[in-house]
Amino acid sequence: xxxxxxxxxxxxxxxxxxxxxxxxxxxxxxxxxxxxxxxxxxxxxxxxxxxxxxxxxxxxxxxxxxxxxxxxxxxxxxxxxxxxxxxxxxxxxxxxxxxxxxxxxxxxxxxxxxxxxxxxxxxxxxxxxxxxxxxxxxxxxxxxxxxxxxxxxxxxxxxxxxxxxxxxxxxxxxxxxxxxxxxxxxxxxxxxxxxxxxxxxxxxxxxxxxxxxxxxxxxxxxxxxxxxxxxxxxxxxxxxxxxxxxxxxxxxxxxxxxxxxxxxxxxxxxxxxxxxxxxxxxxxxxxxxxxxxxxxxxxxxxxxxxxxxxxxxxxxxxxxxxxxxxxxxxxxxxxxxxxxxxxxxxxxxxxxxx
Length: 354
Fold this sequence. Notes:
Blueprint: E1 4-8, H1 12-23, E2 27-31, E3 43-45, E4 51-53, H2 62-70, E5 89-94, E6 97-101, H3 105-115, H4 119-141, H5 158-161, E7 168-176, E8 186-189, H6 194-202, E9 213-217, E10 231-239, H7 247-265, E11 273-279, H8 281-288, H9 333-352
């Protein structure tokens, strides 16, 4: 008789778990509280022709996707085609102070050298060290279950209060009835003090005084996400968790961000908006039962890494395992895919040893 397994939640971690268990011959039912699958990687489709990605907007750690599809006899290109952006992203440091990051390594070296002589050599050293750490982490560590030191479930809320959460976010989904010339696909606004914003997230939680923010204009590279001649704009401002979230505060920060965005682009945007939706702390709680409205799980600190993360296995129910951003290996789409496989392996081992 085939064992039956229930997977609660159809985010990337839940789908990864379900896929691996089904491949192993288990009868799997997936339960989802929301109307669509994908967890935070949902889409918002409007009546006037816009398609917004509500969650992830960066494709990173491509080897994880390749390994996942390989487990089932496929490769990513069997399902989608990737186009490398050039520039990869833009960083806005101030008025007329924008750095476009090229996708070509030689051009990147030249960019570094134009800013500081000798920095290309230092970049090469940094990337070599990063390559070593990445390979060690990806090949030796991330697929380990980390079943010691900590436990996942503790009904005492102080357990989570003692954890350092990653930020929440204030997000705006905007449809604009004209093209905006100075925006790239990815735009990072570092035109205010990073240290102050970080302090207002982690040390002295409050709505930020001069926030940094990110703008994703997907219509620059995908004509299907907006009507012809329009732009699809996603704005994200990192924010401390657990704060009061009101429509007035959202609107206050919308105006603040749009003032800076219009100044950067040297053109008016607000009069051309024909779709607008905000998403913030209260929505993360309502849609995902996210503790204090966090957007990314736990912060990636040394004391919340690997075995020091909440355990993948419930300490009271032997046949209950966890997957996703709050446990190993951590937040993000690729780690969630890995987490799903790790949880599936642990559950399979448990069942096989009964």
